[in-house]
Amino acid sequence: MSNRTHCTWRVISPGLGLLTLLLLVSSCQPVAPTDPQEALIAKGRDIFFNETFNGNGRTCGSCHREENNFTIDPAFIATLPPNDPLFVAEFNPELKENFENPRLMREFGLILENQDGFDDLANNFNMRGVPHVLAQRTSIESPQGPRTGWSGDGAPGDGTLRSFATGAVIQHFTKTLNRVAGVDFRLPTEEELDALEAFQLSLGRQQELQLPLPLKGTVARRGQELFLDDTLGKCNICHSNAGANAVIGGQNRGNANFNTGVEALPDQPADLTGERVPPDDGLGTPGDGTFNTPPLVEAADTGPFFHNNAIETIEGAVGFYDGESFNNSPSGQAVGGIELDGTQIVAIAAFLRVINALENIRESIEFLEKSTKRKSAEAKQLLGRALNETDDSIQTLVAGGLHPQAVAHLRRARKLTKEAVHSWFSRVRLTEDAIREQQKARADMVEP
User: Fold this and answer.
1) At 194, is the secondary structure helix, strand, or coil?
2) 50-64, 139-153, 309-323: range with lowest mean pLDDT
3) Topology of domain 354-445, per CATH?
């Protein structure tokens, strides 16, 4: 089906000149074809970012920020105004105690979760980072049912994304700690849950990578070899194709749970503050000490890492698997331990940085292409999303000292995209030029 065009016309004086006529012609905007699924996703997007469910002012987007890869971290939190709903525990007396720990939120990006129920709020809680919600279509299914949240049981009831949304409203949107539906918040309707699920499943990758990739970078290419080596790096066992699914003994176990010893790490940042941080028992009530596997394609630009934000950099996260906490854990023992030298840790991290940047480029191009077929307001929103992805790709590569020529192309793409945001007549041309720069960056990183 071809795109339709919507034009706004009005009668003007013949003496107004060529410029006015050009402005009138330029008001013709392409209109995307109507599609029920797109409409449902758009509805879910509006709910995700704007619906408070009659609660304390928070929305799903309060913690899962689109401009920050649908998560939050201390650097992003520091940019928010004091009255942001994220900080509701700091200005709502009803939520001052046992709802959040403002210090740990601001310093380490940790959110309070009553994973095992609301019976003893002062003692029965966990402090967890905010997982991104990208690539959920590929990363939450398992033979035991959906795995959501850091421990795989983030949703009450049947564990689905629909239940996850309901659980989030009860946990995070409440006006008081009584958490009475109809008083402290309203629960999402079935139609809203349908829309929220559709929106979340639309985010990020819709399919797995197929490794190995024909990478051009020497260090990243070696990192990929180590990643795929089941006798050395052993990463691909639990993160098949750098995703969230485990393939063990030739059997696909989907998004599985493992005890990797993260809770045994010494000097965890939150513990060093002296604030009360109970041990996190993971899956179940009481927990069995296991946590589910996050996808790695999106890892490099969504740190800090692990359920407790214990490690800041992707290099540190890879290095964890060479340490005592992992090698003494049930999972470490099951794979026979992992022994990596420093250069190998850096190589695997470089591989993860490159595949993350390639995903940023893929999404940037997708947003840019869509923007050329949308009306002005939606086009600008898509261009903004492309800018965010381009910034991520630049930062991810620069931080690892990787692909300087690709970075130069990405910086040119960013400049062109920013110009397109503010352009009326040349928006499409500038966008197409930005797409070509993104493609050149990708060509510097991977063979066709």
Assistant:
1) helix
2) 139-153
3) Four Helix Bundle (Hemerythrin (Met), subunit A) (1.20.120)
